[in-house]
Amino acid sequence: MRPLPCCNQDACSAGAAAIGRYRTVLWVVLAINAVMFFVEIVAGLAAESVALQADALDFFADAANYGISLFVLGLNIRWRASAALVKGASMALFGLWVIGSVVWHALHGTVPDWTTMSIVGMAALAANVACLALLYAWRDGDANMRSVWICSRNDVVANLAVLAAAFGVFGTGTGWPDILVAAVMATLALQGAATIIRQASAELREDRSIKTWDQTPRARSS
Hints:
This protein has about 220 residues and is an all-alpha fold. It has helices at about 10-45, 50-70, 75-110, 115-135, 145-170, 175-215, 215-220. The chain has a single domain, classed as Alpha-lytic protease prodomain-like (Up-down Bundle).
């Protein structure tokens, strides 16, 4: 059997093995995020914490994003970049939703339960640190892989902020630390979304340029 024209047999085997490892990692982090979504949404509603609820929806968005990444894994760059655009848009929507929640809780003067916030925040931090460690090797990949890394990196920062908010609520007796942290999480989501959308758009433009060049008479005759 002749090797594939794109690479030799050893290189192709190594690439397939790497994709297999990445697929396994994605399934693991998807499961972690799905479990933490249910834990945090219940705890966030019980504690009346907008930061925990926002973090729970972030876990849900990440689980959905990892599912999309699994679907497009191994497909061509157009599909992977398009999936990254969807994930970037979902992150942007998440950020806008949190901003709306921040306004609502600010108007109603909600004071969350700082004990629940701190306990669940520690569990969420441990889960996201584990995900970040698993995904570290693929942090510099294409837009799709990079979007997964950015999501997990932002999650760790968000968890630290939730813990800070819990101590802030304890120290001040008000809900403002919780509200401020939720606003920070929204900003991180919007910044991450912008980064993902820019890289994915650039990859789609490059893919279209290559296809346009291949279809020119000169390219076909060479």
